[in-house]
Amino acid sequence: MDLAEIVKALDLDAKLVLARSAERCVPDRPGLYSIFIDDPDNLPSPFKESLSKWKTRMIYLGRASTSLQKRLVAEDLRHKKPSTFFRTIGAVLGYKPPAASLKGKKNQNNYRFTPQDTRSMINWIDCHLSVRWVTLPRDEAERWEQSAIRAVRPLLNTSNNPDALPEVAQLREQCRAIARGSV
User: Fold this and answer.
1) 102 vs 27, 112, 171, CA distance in Å?
2) Got the DSSP string for the chain?
3) Could you tell me the pTM of the whole model?
4) Rounded CA separation 36/155 (Å)
5) Alpha-carbon distance 36 to 154, whole Å?
6) What is the Cα Rg of the chain in Å?
7) pLDDT in tens, 90-108
8) Are 131 and 35 spatial neighbours (Cβ–Cβ below 8 Å)?
9) Is the distance from CB of 179 to CB of 117 less than 8 angstroms?
10) Cα separation of 78 and 71, whole Å?
11) Most buried residue among 6, 13, 72, 94 by CB atoms closer than 10 A?
């Protein structure tokens, strides 16, 4: 596959699968995936305005080096392990991690939300998000991820995104500061 085919498969061509149904059909293979919101109005400002202006509902593009089932479903949609997407969507929706919850921990970046907030976020994800994916050999997924992000510029991707919103990075940093106990 080339970049144009990958972008078409992730953004324009493939059928959307509801987040709540993803566990049943996302394959246990490497690849790239995209996450979409049902309606930009389900996000707060300035995020909903950015999606409307860009005429897209795609909010994230990611890579699964070994398994789309594990990365996309278990981590990003269900938060069974740390996930940049889950932390970012939580911050955008206004959730905050428990104060000083990272204090004394080696990794000072992977904040988590309370169990109650995590359940609320998973419910919100199930109600408002859908996914697409393309299976690729691991080396191809790794090779194409950055170019695909640069091409489609998803709202919540901050790395490799020429249109990255500073508000996304600010909210994530605010959550890290709270979890580190420095606020």
Assistant:
1) 33, 9, 17
2) --HHHHHIIIIIISPPEEGGGHHHHS-SS-EEEEEEES-GGGS-TTHHHHHHHHT--EEEEEEESS-HIIIIIIIIIT-SS--HHHHHHHHHTT--PPTTTTTT-S-SS-----HHHHHHHHHHHHHHEEEEEEE--HHHHHHHHHHHHHHH--TT--TT-TT--HHHHHHHHHHHHHHHT--
3) 0.95
4) 10
5) 9
6) 16
7) 999 999 999 999 998 999 9
8) yes
9) no
10) 10
11) 72
Q: Quote the tokens at residue 62.
A: 């990611």
Dist. CA 63–CA 142, nearest whole Å: 7
- For tokens 């970012």, name the residue: 88
Residue 47 pLDDT greater than 90, yes or no: yes
Dihedral angle of Cα 4, 5, 7, 8, to the nearest 10 degrees: 110
Q: Which strands form 58-64's sheet, in the order they lie side by side?
A: 17-18, 129-135, 31-37, 58-64
Tokens of 106: 């080696």
Residue whose structure tokens are 């392990």: 81
Please give the single-letter amino acid code of residue 177.
Answer: A
